[in-house]
Inverse folding.
């Protein structure tokens, strides 16, 4: 397994691999790998001859006062885990390599970035779509895998890839959860034991909403009112948003149907956690 930090060396290496007919699969991450990332890498391993993992804590997707500086980093441990799942190349560029002096170009996906995390983290998706397009140009993957925990991010990347005619297949992978239901996230390390316990309210909210829907409730406002009450009962929890949206447009829905997704962003202490789930049993 090689670790490459230079953008030009990486691009050259991938051009050569493409010319040699290699099928390239790619998992972009910000590192501090957990089981969720490993499940993407395992799937990526099956889908390509050459498996590339990028590790880059991308400054342009963090807003003022967010956790860019504190974001957990451990390249040594990540490299060990990557080796175990059969990664061929880790691409770990520097911020100045990705955004050299004079850098001026950004990718902005409209509409589906207006709601949810787009509303509460202005500029976040501009940073994500910019870095992902740069990574696609450097790595030149045939297939790229993303986790469904970042539901809106996955939708934004699908939209961008389609709109910009990027020749990359986007694969969304299911949320990976701890046994007690907490969605895996690199940010879970920030939680104190009591916050870790209270953080279960996110996955419990999804379960509660599904139960209400299964029992015949179809009014979003009624469901959201119950969830809001459930969440605010946790002393360390503060709701950023709890919404029910159409899975494709990401617009709010008043009535539940098979395209309805519940999306939550909740601060538990200082840690902002997100989670989501479809509300009806789906057969696709
Ligand atoms: O999901 C993430 O870890 C990041 O947003 C991504 C896609 C690697 C872009 O920096």
């Amino acid at each position: 397994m090689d670790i490459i930090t230079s953008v030009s060396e990486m691009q050259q290496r991938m051009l050569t691999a493409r010319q040699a007919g290699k099928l390239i699969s790619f998992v972009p991450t910000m590192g501090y790998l957990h089981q969720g990332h490993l499940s993407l890498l395992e799937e990526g391993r099956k889908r390509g001859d050459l498996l590339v993992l990028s590790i880059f804590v991308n400054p342009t997707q963090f807003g003022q006062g967010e956790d860019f500086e504190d974001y957990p980093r451990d390249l040594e441990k990540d490299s060990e885990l990557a080796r175990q799942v059969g990664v061929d190349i880790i691409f770990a560029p520097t911020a100045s390599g990705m955004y050299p002096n004079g850098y001026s170009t950004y990718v902005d996906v409209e509409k589906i970035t207006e709601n949810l995390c787009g509303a509460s983290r202005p500029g976040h998706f501009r940073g994500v779509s910019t870095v992902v397009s740069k990574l696609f140009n450097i790595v030149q993957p045939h297939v790229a895998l993303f986790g469904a925990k970042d539901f809106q991010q996955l939708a934004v990347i699908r939209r961008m890839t389609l709109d910009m005619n990027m020749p990359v297949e986007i694969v969304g992978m299911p949320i990976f959860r701890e046994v007690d239901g907490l969605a895996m996230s690199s940010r879970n390390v920030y939680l104190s034991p009591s916050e870790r316990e209270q953080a279960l309210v996110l996955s419990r909210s999804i379960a509660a909403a599904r139960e209400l829907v299964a029992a015949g409730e179809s009014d979003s406002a009624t469901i959201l009112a119950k969830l809001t009450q459930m969440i605010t009962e946790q002393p360390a929890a503060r709701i950023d948003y709890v919404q029910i949206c159409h899975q494709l447009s990401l617009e709010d829905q008043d009535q539940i149907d098979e395209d309805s997704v519940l999306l939550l962003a909740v601060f538990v202490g200082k840690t902002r956690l997100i989670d989501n789930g479809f509300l009806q049993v789906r057969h696709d």
Remarks:
- The beta strands are 2-4, 24-29, 50-55, 89-91, 143-147, 169-173, 237-246, 260-268, 271-278.
- Residues 124-139 form the longest helix (16 residues).
- The two ends are 36 Å apart (CA to CA).
